[in-house]
Amino acid sequence: MKILICDGLHAQGLDILRADPDVEVLAPDQPSVGLIRELLPECAAMVVRSRTKVTEDFLENAPRLRVIGRAGTGVDNIHVSAASARGILVMNTPGANAMAAAEHTMALMLALARHVPQATQSMREGRWDKKRFMGTELYQQTLGIVGLGKIGTIVADRALGFKMNVLAHDPHITPETAAILGTEWVELDEMWPRADFITLHTPLTPETRNLINRDTLSKMKKGVRIINCARGGLIDEEALYEALVAGHVAGAALDVFAKEPPEGSPLLTLPNVIFTPHLGASSYQAQENVSRAIAVQILDYLKRGITRNAVNFPSISAREYDRIRPYMILAERLGHLHGQLSTPIERVDIEYSGPELQELPLDPLTQSIAKGLLDPILAEKVNLVNAPMLLQERKIRLTATRTSEARGYMGLIRVTVESRGQKKSATGAVFPGNEIRLIRFNTYRLEAEPEGINLIVQNKDTPGVIGFIGTTLGAFQVNIANMHLSRTPERDKAVAIIRLDTEAPEDALKALRASPMILSVEQVKL
Q: Would residue 487 show up in a list of annotated catalytic residues for this protein?
């Protein structure tokens, strides 16, 4: 498997990848867009940082690409929806550089408060301007943190160490959680007029783009100082320039910009703004951590199917993967069974039950069922990443519920499919030793292995049917590997699930269907 390193990677990560005998690492120095396009069609994975923009047209010419790894936090330079549509996993390393980014934020905050860069430059020019660079303390000042994730949490802890009052806004945490961290959770409209310093630690999304703009700046306290070590597009830079020139904002410290590098930006001309060239993650330790993390994550996914820090698929830890893997196989085969028996599929209802499935993430199982359903239907590649999107495109409704009742089983998956007003149901379980079984088909109870080539024969429950099936298949040189039988409580109908060594020809199926004893015959491959 070829892995393309687009923006450089620390030696530790490269060593991990190169040590794997199944991997060939392509690591050109600062490759051009043209070279990336040339190499990408042969690659199973690519690793980027912030320089390379993974656009939709990049992905159109990447038939073997399975995973894109962002050696860092933000993925706004990756067209995630286009990757998802092509079944390409996108992963990042959100915690590996958290300490570096948080410490850089504190460094910029202190430098901004005490005019460190300006004073340094003044001394280089031979001046001793003590009065000119009068600063402000952090002690008892109010810091507003937008985004209380890993980086924001570290910043909050360090700010509390300076005895600052810390306000925080994050829609994904509760006020109680914020209070445990020693911060006060507030709405943004309450934060703006109270904060002396504001620091941003939120991803760039359509909702957060230009979060700081003319309107929000007008609500801020006069003399506020703003720090951004997150993403450039969070700030309307023209509006910030106007507020700095007007003196409403006392100063700003920027590590990231809407356009990088920010050539020609009027902000570069202002004496009350300090800058660094996207250095938030640029510590030796962070680069080691990020490179090691992305290398291990990519290998785990390519070789074992384990997903960690994926942005377009549920993450599964190694421990969870070992437990969930047999259920994922069962789920996909139940979906595959329905995909061959029902068309067109209009609705899918999934029920997970049993104590083991109370402890495992269900999204990977649901996506396994979706993949199984679509594999027999669609010509294009279907995998766990793009299956939900393809399901939505076909207007197939899907619901999933979880219950604790499992009637003696550790875990059951029941999939019911509706097609043309008719419903079909299949229930599977995982037995000790990770043996998977189909234990119910519609109303029939049985215990069949959902694998290989199978005939599903429904018939009238009368003597001679089994013999007729065996004789007919034998006449066409089709050998039966095993057979599972069940019948209705009324004993008027029965089902036989027959595993075959080879696929039965169409003439054999026609011969079976010609008998008045046979109600239906379906051949499925699992």
A: no
